[in-house]
Design brief:
The chain is mainly α and about 475 residues long. Helices cover about 65% and strands about 0% of the residues. β1 and β2 form a beta hairpin.
Length: about 475
């Protein structure tokens, strides 16, 4: 059986025993038996129903994932790449991610038995259990890294240091904010999370709008030196290194590449065929917002005064106001990634158990413990990795292989059926090669950038009380 191994073992909590469960990927008949209609019918009598998200609620989840703190790092990317290449790269990456996400959506619709990226990873590599386990490891690490580096744990510390006292140790405040994030992570279904997602996307949109406005109305950027006006260049400045350029590119790519969550979102849609509606709406909005934010803020703050995130380029009062509106999004995004990581483990522990879909003490106890575990790990990562843009770049270099799903949709000679299909196939082969290049070169440049940051003493030490104010 292609799915043999740990993946096919579930925990039967009612009998306190492990038992082997047939893989959802093991046969076409089992795939058909897990069609969307059958899944919804099976859930009709359950206390906790998972396939309940409309496309609007799925769009809210996507908006909350993409309209996030990382987008306020686009001015920094534009300052490295130059205004013109920055805009071109943003639009090109948006179009590429839209296309590959649509392919991924079609793949998930064809295979409704797959609940997450780990199932897809196993399928794409011929049912390999090793591929499943490695994808699962990367999936969980990706989510926890997002919690630890882009979540409220790091950002709240920067916020508090900016507002109250840069000489006071906020080590414990990070633990407190982790507890807040933990509470927000507790809902069992994505349907329940979508309402908070809508609110978080709106508040982040306000934060970005304020950042754009404040960057233009303030007399000078934060840190302004008299006589040194903001410098804006249409192309990269002479001497820009490969590492700097690639890190800026990866920072843009990371913000668009949230596809690792798409299979999980589709798995809880009541009508997965509507996924494309949500994807189109979100991609158009994010491409416009990212480009405007990057170009306009960079125009006003220039190369010398740009920071990542761009809140640091604002003077103190403006910084506090703009950042305050970003707080709900930072909390929710970490909570969403925690929720999905915990869900992955939870569903494997309780594959066929009533604890998976009922409000039992055992089910809730395990769920709470899993969510808490993700935040403990994220809190540690947030302390051990006290930098932002470099970590975003590193994570974006590790999850770009979605074009491979296209090849399974058109197996054999069907992928060369006619000139248009052949051209599309060649494009997807190019995306596979591009993904491989980004994975290798991106990982190298990100690690090198992290090393350079430490050598330049641009980051604080681990578990430190030193100020990390924006």
């Amino acid at each position: 059986m292609p799915g043999s191994g740990l993946k096919d073992v579930g925990f039967d909590a009612e009998n306190n025993d492990l038992k082997r469960i047939p893989s959802a990927l093991s046969s076409d008949s089992s795939a058909k038996s897990l069609s969307v209609g059958v899944q919804i019918a099976r859930e009709s009598e359950h206390e906790i129903k998972y396939r309940t998200c409309s496309w609007q609620k799925t769009a809210a989840l996507l908006f909350s994932e993409y309209i996030c703190l990382a987008m306020v790092s686009f001015p920094w990317s534009f300052s490295v790449l130059g205004m013109v290449p920055g805009v071109i790269v943003t639009v090109a990456v948006a179009a590429t991610c839209l296309y590959t996400s649509l392919i991924l959506g079609r793949f998930c619709i064809k295979h409704p038995e797959m609940r997450d990226v780990c199932d897809i990873g196993q399928y794409l590599f011929g049912g390999s259990q090793l591929a499943y386990n490695l994808t699962a490891l990367m999936f969980i690490l990706n989510n926890i890294f997002v919690q630890g580096t882009g979540s409220f744990i790091v950002a709240q510390s920067s916020s508090l240091n900016s507002r109250i006292c840069t000489h006071f140790c906020f080590w414990f405040s990070k633990a407190i904010t982790a507890i807040i994030c933990f509470i927000v992570s507790l809902p069992r279904t994505l349907n329940q999370m979508s309402g908070l997602g809508t609110f978080s996307a709106i508040t982040m949109g306000i934060a970005v709008l304020l950042t754009i406005i404040f960057s233009g109305v303030q007399s000078h950027p934060f840190g302004y030196v008299a006589g040194q006006e903001p410098l804006v260049t249409p192309i990269p400045i002479p001497g820009t290194s490969y590492v700097a350029g690639m890190s800026a590119f990866l920072n843009i790519t990371y913000t668009f590449v949230g596809q690792v969550m798409i299979p999980t979102f589709i798995a809880e849609m009541e009508n997965p065929k509507d996924f494309s509606k949500a994807l189109w709406a979100v991609t158009i909005a994010e491409a416009v917002i990212y480009t405007i934010c990057g170009a306009v803020v960079y125009h006003f703050v220039g190369n010398q005064y740009v920071t990542a995130p761009a809140f640091g380029s604002l003077t103190q009062t403006y910084k506090i106001i703009a950042f305050s509106f970003a707080v709900p999004t930072i909390i929710f995004l970490g909570a969403l990634y925690s929720n999905v990581a915990a869900r992955f483990v939870f569903f494997r522990l309780f594959r066929e158990s009533r604890h998976r879909h009922s409000n039992t003490i055992v089910g809730w106890a395990v769920w709470v413990a899993l969510v808490a575990a993700t935040w403990v790990l994220a809190w540690i990562i947030g302390e051990v990795i006290p930098f932002f843009s470099d970590m975003l770049s590193l994570m974006s270099s590790l999850f770009i292989f979605w074009a491979m799903a296209y090849l399974t949709l058109y197996p054999g000679k069907s992928k060369w059926d006619g000139p248009l299909r052949s051209a599309e196939t060649l494009v997807n082969y190019f995306f596979i090669l591009l993904g491989a290049y980004i994975t290798v070169a991106g990982t190298y440049t990100s690690v090198e950038s992290i090393i350079q940051s430490y050598q330049a003493r641009a980051v604080a030490g681990v578990f430190t009380c030193a100020s990390n104010a924006l």
